Amino acid sequence: xxxPRLLTASVxxxxxxxxxAAAFVAPYDETTDRLLTDLSVKTETAIAKADGGKxxxxxxxxxxxxxxxxxxxxxxxxxxxxxxxxxxxxxTQLEQRFVDLREHGSSPRSSLATGLRATxxxxxxxxxAKKRSSVFSARLKKSG
Amino acid sequence: MTQDIIAxxxxxAKGHAADLKQYVEAxxxxxxxxxxxxxxxxxxxxxxxxxxxxxxxxxxxxxxxSLLAIEVTLKAAAQDAINAAISVAEAAINKAVGIALL
Lengths: 144, 102
Hints:
Largest sheet of chain B: none
Oligomer: heterodimer
Distance between the termini of chain A: 23 Å
Order of helices and strands of chain A: HHHHH
Largest sheet of chain A: none
Helix content of chain A: over 70%
Helix content of chain B: over 70%
Strand content of chain B: under 5%
Shape of chain B: rod-shaped
Number of helices of chain B: 2
Radius of gyration of chain A: 22 Å
Number of domains of chain B: 1
Distance between the termini of chain B: 17 Å
Shape of chain A: elongated
């Protein structure tokens, strides 16, 4: 038999615990991660071509247009989720790296694209942290 | 129960800590390799002084995004640690009352 006082205390604790579940970051979004992976592949391909002197001006313009289209799509998608302000800021900074490179007017060779590469890596780390957290949350729910 | 909560919370944060170490190392490699490339390209006149200044400015700008990545990782680690601790507390309450109340 359950003691009424214990039950009352438990219900109170239950309400407190349920309302206290921590949520500091938005859930992992596979679509954003896929867009970022595609962008990373396209960027590294363009850098390799630029390093080898094989990126024509036309290819370069096309690369920047497509990259900016992808980044802006990611930004719009990121804005759909609550607790995602840091990712939105990071993607906005990524957009700025592409804009800066394009406006600088030179080929995106390795030496000039280091800041861009570091920025892409940072946004990838955000996806990794969110994915680990989502997997962990799912496992907790399953075991609970 | 305290030890169980501590174990659950620290266990949850460990994966993020390992990811963060990997990230910081990968970031440092990108900056180091990029710096070598900038110097090499300038010596070979593949880039100008203006390009060199631009490249370093871009690296400096990218540090703000790195900081955001570290912040998100720390927030995710804190979230998982807290939720793991809550889960242990829930299980303890369910066990104490003898029913799956939570």
